[in-house]
Amino acid sequence: MKRIHELVRSFQEQELLLPIWFEEDKLHFIDQKKLPFESRIEAITEVEDLATAIKDMTIRGSGAIGTCGAWGLYLAALRSHGNPEAIIQAGALLKQTRPTAVNLMKTVDEIIGIVQGKGSDLIERIEQKTIEILERQLAFEHQLGSHGAEMIDEGDAILTHCHSGALAGSGYGGRALSVIRKAHEQGKNIHVYTCETRPYLQGARITAYELKKFGIPHTLLTDNMSGYCMSQGMVQKVVVGSDRVAANGDLANKIGTYMHALAAKANGVPFYTATSSHTIDLAVAAGRDIEVEFRDASEVTSFQKRAIAPEGTNALYPSFDITPNELISGIITEKGVMQAPYPSSLRSLQSTVESGA
């Protein structure tokens, strides 16, 4: 446990916006549904509570959800005193929470793969693996940010969708905001257009919150303004995050992403997704094979428990959509920017990752 506490202190000294951390024998996390007007921190001791927080989007974002897999199994190991059956059950519970994002599944499977023995030895093994995963995630954010910043030119206005930032990752910039933040830190004069992202308004509530905190100039748009802004030459790049990338380069990301990609293609604006190799799922051939999570219709007909539509109104909420690979100018990863043809470039990337190069 000492090593975990040392890691958290190290992260805190780097002034990261940590979405989740371990402190005083409890998991702490920021309730992202309360932002930007309230910074509420929750503390839990049970994996079931973590699963609930993921399901109801108190914790969200593919990178942050991925780290929850590590934190959750470490918590399960501690609470069960190193009982392997309890750890495996906790992994199964967490994997059921959000079906579209692949990071959580991969992280859980990675830890389950080292579940051997029991007791304190098993706890130590999981603690070490958790540390490795958390350090790797943070390193990815810096690395993909550096590669992505090379795609950003002086004076660019960049459109982004939803929230793919520090609180959706490991504290630096998640996916898309790693690219934007790194370009800003390099001294490039940039401006960000952030789409509000109905129905949870992650872009308005959280992306704008982080951009303000980082001192990055930005303007808020409603989701249906992006096409107009691109047609007027107001946007030079689109950079979004990712929840899963299929083997052919098709992208699963927050609902509305496809719409922005179509507008970008029609107006000659380069469209990039920022991701890590961990989010690329070569077991899924194409976007049509990705399970899209459908959430409760009440999340569309109301906002923060206040009705915004007449009672009895039917609503639909696919939480993600699929952007075909032909609309994507490049896939930004910690190893570089992958270009079409994506089936070969993504497999080459995977080979590089597996070889440790």
Key structural traits:
single chain, 357 residues, alpha/beta, seven-stranded mixed β-sheet, four-stranded mixed β-sheet, globular
H-E string = HEEEHHHHHEHEHEHEEEHEEHEEEEEH
Helical run tally: 12
- Strand element count: 16
Helical amount among residues, as a percent range?
Answer: 40-55%
Structure notes:
The chain is of the alpha/beta class. It has a seven-stranded mixed β-sheet with strand order 6-5-4-7-10-15-16, with helices on both faces. It has a four-stranded mixed β-sheet with strand order 11-8-9-14, with helices on one face. A hairpin with a 2-residue loop joins strand 12 and strand 13. The chain is globular, with a radius of gyration of 20 Å. It starts with a helix and ends with a helix. About 45% of the residues are buried. The model has no long low-confidence stretch (mean pLDDT about 95).
Annotate the secondary structure layout.
Layout: H1 2-13, E1 20-23, E2 26-30, E3 41-44, H2 47-55, H3 62-79, H4 84-95, H5 103-112, H6 119-149, E4 157-160, H7 176-185, E5 191-195, H8 202-214, E6 218-221, H9 226-231, E7 237-240, E8 244-246, E9 251-254, H10 257-266, E10 271-274, E11 280-281, H11 298-301, E12 302-303, E13 306-307, E14 320-323, E15 330-333, E16 336-338, H12 342-355
Summarize the structure.
The protein is of the alpha/beta class. Helices cover 42% and strands 16% of the residues.
